[in-house]
Design goal:
Layout: H1 3-19, E1 23-25, E2 29-31, E3 40-49, E4 55-62, E5 67-71, E6 75-76, E7 81-89, E8 95-105, E9 112-121, E10 125-127, E11 131-134, E12 143-149, E13 156-162, E14 167-173, E15 179-186, E16 193-202, H2 207-212, E17 215-219
Parallel strand pairs: 2-9, 11-17
Antiparallel strand pairs: 1-3, 3-7, 4-6, 4-8, 5-7, 8-9, 10-12, 12-15, 13-16, 14-15, 16-17
Length: about 220
């Protein structure tokens, strides 16, 4: 085989490979950053149809009900660019998170592509306990709850709100940075009572964090 014919075959094979590339992604792994009070992360994955044929999006599938994903359209002509938008709802999760999305097309050479978004969901508030009990007719001894705020986040405990006057609360910082001591006392233990204490922070916590940062008070 002559050198010129060999080069021609190499060129044809290279061209065929490029034409068979289909969807080419700018990046398939994206890391999100979460701030206190955030409830979700929204990430965009951009791609281009670098093949020689029109591609149809057949399915976009996530591995978790907390994650939604969709492309900006379903059909991409050769050379067209597109975007896959992914929304991850935190729903009270903390720690390292990784979510995978599967994009399936009618490309016979590479029908399915996976992309991933990942990131750390920091805890913002931790409580030493969430349930305080007193006995009806017993001693109304104050009970303590320690509140610890994430030292790596700019978050401040402003106050504690009670939904009843059957209990009182005092708040004071401790010697530990970003830690507070809450003392709860029933105003009366002559009869059963119940209440909920909620923490108010700056910035505000998201709904899931608010639910986890409630303290339940009972006189039984």
């Amino acid at each position: 085989m002559s050198i010129s014919r060999w080069l021609t075959l190499v060129l044809l094979c290279t061209t065929a490979f490029v034409g068979a590339q289909g969807l080419v992604w700018e990046q398939q792994n994206v890391e999100f950053k979460a701030k206190p009070g955030d409830t979700e992360a929204k990430v965009e994955f951009r791609f281009t149809n670098q093949g020689k044929r029109t591609l149809n999006i057949r399915r976009v599938r996530t591995t978790c009900g907390c994650t939604g994903a969709k492309t900006d359209r379903e059909v991409y002509a050769p050379g067209e660019k597109g975007t896959l938008s992914v929304t991850f709802r935190f729903e009270g999760r903390t720690g390292q998170q990784m979510k995978t999305v599967f994009v399936t097309t009618d490309d016979p050479d590479q029908p399915t592509t996976t992309v991933q978004l990942s990131g750390m969901l920091p805890w913002n508030v931790q409580l030493s306990q969430r349930l305080l009990l007193w006995t009806t007719g017993g001693e109304s001894t104050p009970q303590e709850v320690l509140v610890e705020l994430n030292p790596n986040e700019d978050i401040t405990l402003l106050k504690v709100e009670l939904d009843t006057r059957d209990f009182a609360c005092t708040m004071a910082p401790t010697d530990v940075p970003r830690q507070y001591r809450l003392l709860f006392t029933p105003t009366s233990i002559a009869a059963p009572a119940k209440g909920i204490a909620s923490l108010k922070t700056k910035p505000a916590l998201n709904d899931a964090e608010i639910a986890r940062a409630r303290i339940f008070l009972y006189v039984r």
